[in-house]
Amino acid sequence: MRNRVSTSLDTNGACGMFDQFTAVQIVAAFFAAFGSAFVRGLTGFGMAILIVPILALALSPVHAVLLTNFLSVFIGLSEIRRLLRNAEKTAWTIIALVAVTTPIGLYALSLTSPSIARVVIAFIALSAFVAILLPRRGVMDHHPATTGGVGILSGLMTGYAGMPGPPVVPYYVGRDIPRETAKASMLLIFTCASSVGLASGAAIGVLELNLALLAALLFPAVLLGNYLGDRLSGRIADRTWRICVGVVLGAAAVAALVKAIG
């Protein structure tokens, strides 16, 4: 009996999805999927920031990013009506720019060595934590140039690291807008960004069907974690929620840096 499962398609077209994973790594992936989705439901972001560095320890950075994109699309589609209803209009401007710039980031990732990519991904997570510490701004304090810059950076980070969040989270959480508006705007952007990331991966020839199958296997853990996190989010005060956002970003940045350097 084999003690590893395959992540590549064999010559007969049968799919042995987990060859690169030990049983311990598979269990760790389930817990990472559940935990990162719980944080997503609670804060409106964080799934990619938390799960990509973990998956990148067992998969290549490109495959870790694409697998996370699949998970993000799956969970985003499960709540798309709420996201469309509550998102701010600026989300669509950012989404359009993400669609243009994501392929550039993904192409750059495909040219980068795994060790360098892991360090870059760790510093991207750190940048989000630093940005969230900046003073909060007013509801209307978002110049079109700022919105455009957020969209461009988010697209580049989506392609390179599967993390559209570092520019987007401070843009919404750092303004004095309703929590549900901030969460819906961020999650709509992340869902669309992940869709663009998958399309870009297919276009440059690095997207594999077995990643979708692995994402489907992990999706129940994502669905449960997101549901429980969203339930808790509705029961805590706004200040507590914003503190949770900062704590999650800080913890993710530290963990990613430790893993990249170690």
Overall description:
The chain has 262 residues and is an all-alpha fold. It has one domain. Helix content is 74%, strand content 2%. The protein is built from eleven helices and two strands. It has a two-stranded antiparallel ribbon. Strand 1 (8-9) and strand 2 form a beta hairpin. The longest helix is centred in the C-terminal third of the chain and has 25 residues, at 179-203. It is globular, with a radius of gyration of 17 Å. Residues 1-15 have low confidence and may be disordered.
Any key phrases for this structure?
globular, 262 residues, 74% helix, two-stranded antiparallel sheet
Q: Nutshell version of this structure?
A:
The protein is 74% helix and 2% strand. It is mainly α and 262 residues long.
Count of DSSP E strands?
2
What overall form do the CA principal axes indicate?
Answer: globular
Q: What is the straight-line distance between the termini?
A: 33 Å
**Biggest sheet details:** 2 strands, antiparallel
Total tally of structural domains: 1
Oligomeric state, counting identical vs distinct chains: single chain
Class per helix and strand makeup: mainly alpha
Sequence of secondary-structure elements: EEHHHHHHHHHHH
Helix content: over 70%
How much of the sequence lies in strands comes to under 5%
Low-confidence stretches: 1-15
